Fold:
Amino acid sequence: MGMTMTQKILAKHAGLEKVEAGQLIQVNLDLVLGNDITSPVAIKEFLKTGVKDVFDRSKIAIVPDHFTPNKDIQSAEQCKYVREFAYKHNIENYFEIGEMGIEHCLLPEKGLVVPGDVVIGADSHTCTYGALGAFSTGIGSTDMAAGMATGKGWFKVPGAIKFVLTGKPAKYVSGKDVILHIIGKIGVDGALYKSMEFAGDGLKHLSMDDRFSMANMAIEAGGKNGIFPVDEKTIEYVNNHSNKPYTVYTADDDAVYDEIYNINLSELRPTVAFPHLPDNTRTIDDVGDVKIDQVVIGSCTNGRLEDLRIAAELLKGKKVTKGVRVIVFPGTQKIYLDAMKEGLLEIFIEAGAIVSTPTCGPCLGGHMGILAKGERAIATTNRNFVGRMGHPESEVYLASPAVAAASAIAGKIKNPEEI
Amino acid sequence: MEATGKAFKYGNNVDTDVIIPARYLNTSDPKELGKHCMEDIDTTFVERVQEGDMIIANKNFGCGSSREHAPLAIKASGVSCVIAKSFARIFYRNAINIGLPILECDEAVDGIEANDKIKVDFQRGIIFNETKNETYQAQPFPEFIQEIISSGGLVSYIQKQMK
Ligand code: SF4
Structure:
């Protein structure tokens, strides 16, 4: 019986020849991540262990991104606590204002994650790095503390669901649409405990940015991680961003999958998740007439350069509907700068959108774009739970940057093909 | 490591909100939390539970929020072990991290009835039903997980290792 890609990475990091689904193992970690919300708790737990120093100051990343630039006194105090810890322990990968970004956009860009790595993060969207052929998953603050102290983490080896992608997606069908389609199909607990393993020759049509946004939302199907095979696109990305040595793992031919789904990308349509769950999906042809008050383009799901490019392509020379607030928040300083150099920011501003500094901001209803009672937003983020972006009676619709930009122009949810 | 006690039995999807309602989350003191354990699913639980007793539940025990207060409340109430067909992923991690033993075993869940007297041998994964004279086999925990649990959780385990 063979192993899946995830199982092979875990076996290697546990020093074992072989692992099986359900087995409990202890693995060596390549990177431990935390943010401004989860790190303070983890640091307190870390201090309780009595361990004097972190296991490896180059293998810890702390990124205050959720409520930064600090939105209030409490978040300022939290960041201060985290900053002092980072300085005291010489944490190499501590990034704050000026060099920060949304953690899951920033880490790959800084070359901190490479194929074959095992990464844990005290943030549920740590699964994003599966796009690079790494095993990465979200854990709690106690796990982060233990990871910082010992460099080890324990896992239950996950079983797997395989998604075989074929065909070429249409122009306005992006990775976001593919993952929304999958979540709509298997449900928000469809991949509970399991790894979502992507495969098939349709992958060659998905850019790295597409893959990041797909792996990012594995957790929205309950998955432990989502993972992509390493191909030329991955290698190119890694060579451009990192000097770290990497290892390419491939699934065995006789690996065991609990389920296999075949998805023809050429048949997919732009897809929107209606409130209040990411699996409540409809294709753009079935959305009906949904007026919107706000458009949010950004986040760790869709705040990368390609996302901004496609939004700008649609907004170029157009105006957003009067009364609709359009907020663009690039994922990192570098993405921000690149978008500026390419003239994308100018397009957004001329169209009537605003461009924010990188922050999680509106994505989690933190700051910079909170919704009032009864308001509706279309967002390129990953969660549309009750109250996620503000008032419990507000609504969030999840979509791709193309659909979000088209909707900004139309003032209601709109098919980008019709712009 | 062994435990003995009587069984409390529940169904599918016992969520973290019924294990410890959000209205009690203004404290993380285990003793306080233990006083309200299972309150919204079984109002008499806290009065009846005795040191060593076990919770037996069906599928997806501990689903819902990631609050570590849920396993803390169960542990503080005196419960020695939770046996279920499956656990929600985060609850599973949290339980081990705070030192609450949990076991997955379909046969045990099907075989055990409320108030049966149960004995668990964690080292071997053996669940013995004294009332019915039946034995069920669960996957035993590997040594490092047993050590985490017997140390009282992940943080104490690391403390010990560092000594
Ligand atoms: S952008 Fe949103 S989903 Fe991503 S890390 Fe920030 S809050 Fe979480």
User: Anything to note?
Assistant: The longest strand of chain B covers residues 2-9. Chain B has one domain: 2-162. Strands of chain B lie at 2-9, 54-57, 81-84, 102-104, 117-121, 126-129, 134-137. Helices of chain B lie at 16-19, 30-34, 45-48, 69-76, 89-98, 106-111, 143-151, 154-162.
